[in-house]
Structures are given as structure tokens and as C-alpha cells.
Amino acid sequence: MKFFIDTANLAQIQEAQELGVLDGVTTNPSLMAKEGISGDANVKAHYKAICAIVDGDVSAEVIATDYEGMIKEGEELAALDEKIVVKIPMIKDGVKALKYFSDKGIKTNCTLIFSAGQALMAAKAGATYVSPFIGRLDDISTDGLDLIESIRIIFDNYDFGTEILAASVRHPMHIIQCAEIGADVMTGPLSAMEALLKHPLTDIGLAKFLADHAKANG
Length: 218
Ligand code: G3P
Description:
The protein is an alpha/beta fold. It has helices at residues 10-19, 29-34, 40-53, 67-80, 92-104, 116-124, 134-139, 144-157, 172-181, 190-196, 200-217, and strands at 2-6, 24-26, 57-61, 84-89, 108-113, 129-132, 163-166, 185-188. The chain has a single domain, classed as TIM Barrel (Alpha-Beta Barrel).
């Protein structure tokens, strides 16, 4: 399973990259705003800065919601760097835009997926990734992981090349369960990735090894 970091924070992207397990980055307009990035030129410069840090795909979301607007914006974003994946919302014009970019060989990430039907539509239109938001489904007392499972079955049934990018990941168990189900990618915060490597018995065991070594070696 690929690990993407879901942030526009350059320091955190750098830290995840240095950890050596990072396969890409996802951003969205809220995450860009959180970093105080605004204005077309600044937004584009920020995407370029992210691309300079990571080796993998970097999702950059369009703001337009009409077909022509999404094509224009998406083409501009894709021209910034070959790592850019154009992130398109799951709306009717978005499906048309997915097809357009797919035909042109430009990678896409269809975002705001909350049902298997939406994922199927995006895959039919040739999306590179679909982003089901599991945390936001959990927030409304629905099991987000059930959606990942359902999409996995559908995509496997028909050998869709579209990758399942589990998004809105909030904690380490989300990551483990996505890996069990077979999501292709997960995108989440650095804290959730770092939580995977922690275990109290590891810390206790290491402290004992070091103490025994110190005792034996003076
Ligand atoms: O990037 C989209 C998604 O991962 C958002 O997550 O935590 O805002 O629901 P969240």
C-alpha cells in the first residue's frame, strides 16, 4: 500500500519524505488555506515546492466546478510538474473532466467519494485514483471501511486500473484496516504514520537492552 501525506505543510512533507516511506502527497483547498496559501501565483509556487520535496504523485485540486473551468485549471496545474495529479470533485462536470484528462494521459484523483456508485462512475471515466473519505463517513456513524471494501470488490470484479486512495484517514487503525482490505493508497496525517511505528514494549525492550549493555560495558 502506498503512503501519501494529506497536508500542504512543507515541513511535515519534508519530515515524511525523510522517514523514507512517503509515496506522494494529497492537498485540498482547505489544507492550502490552513497554510495561508492564497492567490493563483502563490498556490502554483506552493505546488512546485511540494513537488521539489517528494518523489511521487502530488494531488492538486481544481476550484472550478464547471467543465471548461476544470479543464483550464487542470491543464495549468498539470503543466507545473509531471508529478501533479489533477484532483477533480465527484460532480457531473467532474466526471466529464476525468474522461478528458484520462484521454489526454493526465493523471486524476476523483475526490469527495462517499459511495460505491460514485467510485464506479469515476473508474468508468478513467480516473487514476478515487478518494473515498473514510473518516468523514465515520463522523456520521457510518463505517467508512465498508466503502473501501465495496469499492475493492467492484474494481477487482472488472479489473479497473483505477487505484483506491483511502482518504480522510484519521488514525493508525484506519491505515492497518485499509491495508487489510487492500486499498492501493492511503492518505493521512504524519501523526497517523508515526503512530504505526510505536509500541510500548519496543520502548521497554530497548531501554532494557541499553541498560544491560551499559552494565556489561561499564
Ligand atoms: O484530502 C481529503 C481528505 O483526506 C480530507 O480529510 O480529515 O478533512 O476529512 P478530513
